Amino acid sequence: MTDRDRPLPAPEWRISDSPVPYADAVAEMEARAAAIREDGAPELIWLLEHPPLYTAGTSARAEDLTDPDRFEVHETRRGGQYTYHGPGQRVVYVMLDVSARGRDVRLFVAQLEAWVIATLDRFNVVGEIRTGRVGVWVVRPEKPTAADGAPSEDKIAAIGVRLKRWVSMHGISINVEPDLSHFDGIVPCGITDHGVTSLVDLGLPVTLDDVDVALRETFTEVFGD
Which of 34, 71, 41, 43 is nearest to 56 (CA)? Predict the structure, then answer.
């Protein structure tokens, strides 16, 4: 039986009630990914928050860390550039067996994007993908247009993954009610001409618990049973 034919146990879902230090989360991801790959452990979807911090992906540029003394900075081997994590942001770490799910990295990233968009849709928020801009974006028609007349757009979710022997780590983060001023210490994902937003910033009284329910409901719609 090949990896693609091997039946997958149902993913385990875990929710951490208090902020998890970044180094602890990375160690847990590494250990679980190894157990999935080597021992057939169940996949894991881990919902958590971090204390305020910045992470630098493999494409991060030093000049995009504009306030290096503001919060802890963690170098990470996920793809992408600088991003912020902190309270009020739902971080979703996905330890999934991409080998058994088809070994298609582009499809896997597209599924993560579709998962975020489907989750936002539960709150009547239209999330969109933009070529050349990582993450999920929302149009802000109430804001001034850009110099070229294009509508203003803000980022509401970040996506950054790493595969190790075909098991994924890291994942997505959705801004529910973080302190948006904390993004000021970086150039998020290297993009200077667009801002960031959150569900609460959009005027929606959404909680982390609400988002968790939506994430679980939409997971099977995108990834299957």
Answer: 71
